[in-house]
Amino acid sequence: MMTGLVLSACSGADDESPATSTPSPSGSATASASETPSGTTTPSATETETDAPPPEFATVDEADRPFAVEEVGAYDSPWALEFLPGTEQLLITTITGEMILRDLDGGREVDVEGLPDPVVAGQGGLGDIVVGPDFEDDRTVYLSWVEAGEGGTGAVIGRATLEESGDQASLQNLEVIWEQQPKASGDGHFSHRLAFSPDGEYLFVSSGDRQEMTPAQDLGSGLGKIMRLTPDGQPAPDNPFADEGGVSAEIWSYGHRNPLGLAFAPDGTLWASEMGPQGGDELNRIEEGGNYGWPEASNGSHYEGEEIPDHTDDDGFNSPEAWWTPSVSPAGLMIYDGEMFPDYSGDALIGALSGQALVHVDLDGDQAVAGEIYPMGNRIRDVAQAPDGSIWVLEDAGGANLLRLTPASD
Ligand SMILES: [Ca+2]
Ligand SMILES: [Ca+2]
Questions:
Q1: Ligand 1 geometric centre to CA of 73 (Å)
Q2: Which intervals carry biased composition (Low complexity) (predicted)?
Q3: 82 in a domain, yes or no?
Q4: What is the total count of domains within the chain?
Q5: What spacing in Å lies between the alpha carbon of 255 and ligand 2's midpoint?
Q6: What residues act catalytically?
Q7: Is the alpha carbon torsion for 213, 394, 87, 167 positive or negative?
Q8: Tell me, what's the pLDDT at 32?
Q9: What is the extent of the structural domain holding 111?
Q10: Which of 23, 24, 67, 187 has a CB 3.0–4.6 Å from the CB of 405, allowing a cystine?
Q11: For residue 320, is it within any domain?
Q12: pLDDT recorded at residue 18
């Protein structure tokens, strides 16, 4: 049966192309103007669209937003931001391979030296940056990027020490501690988002399906998974498939497509935002050993219009806790625990690429209710909480702004 579903994934059409999210009546195939590589099956003309009616969301006008927006910086193709505990600084990565250390007030910006030389193509390049669990003592940071090797390209995680002296900053003792396996052709769906568990014991990484789809269901492949590693990049002890050894021992959950957001709630729950195909974007609550269905179940459809069975309660897959059709293209994800925005306490905020919005999801323990969509006028790549509880939003692509959100005055 699966062979019928293995249509070519349009390369990057979901998250790296300019905004195309004209909401369409559910079921119409609008995205297939792009390439159909030769040799692939022609999509069936007998499209059977059974997508469930999508949830409806409140789109909030600018005048009614609960936050004021201040532009505090501008960067070329930024990908991630990370506040540095115990300092008044943050790090910003760009997909083209730069890292900037800046003061919160923007008074000083330093290009960090000693970076790896990533493969920059399509969705690949320099990726995420997170601090290690003991950053204030050891200045250890973890970053992800794309490298080339046998079989194509793949993400890696590196660990390094952030050193700073005068007006210079650099990564020292950079070592690769993990590789996405196997490497694959193409330049999409690396995912490579990083998150430490609140206790600092485990490093989680999202490993996208590299647009090959079916490996997401293969526990012998490292693609389409979320991995749980030790801070040294080794498979964490007692992972659900540890007995299988090899890459299987890294796997925490599977059946993922392109999870570009990964964050822990204060209660220890791990959440991941995942880009669906044509529709069916997801926010998933990540459980040990969970199978999230891709590519056998999705509330969206293939770009070519062929339907994928929707998630159901009894299909054996973990269903998304919140989902979006048409696509908003969720990227960076944060769970808010500051005091500046009490209404967001414990809730998820997600940057939307094609949706050009900030998306709020009301979280209450295991429950998630997709809430407001705040149009921002630009693709949003990442979002993070500053030490003062303000929300910092990083736009995408060239000429991207870094935005600081504070409560709107009445
Ligand atoms: Ca799913
Ligand atoms: Ca579907």
A1: 35
A2: 18-47
A3: yes
A4: 1
A5: 15
A6: 189
A7: positive
A8: 34
A9: 77-327
A10: 67
A11: yes
A12: 39
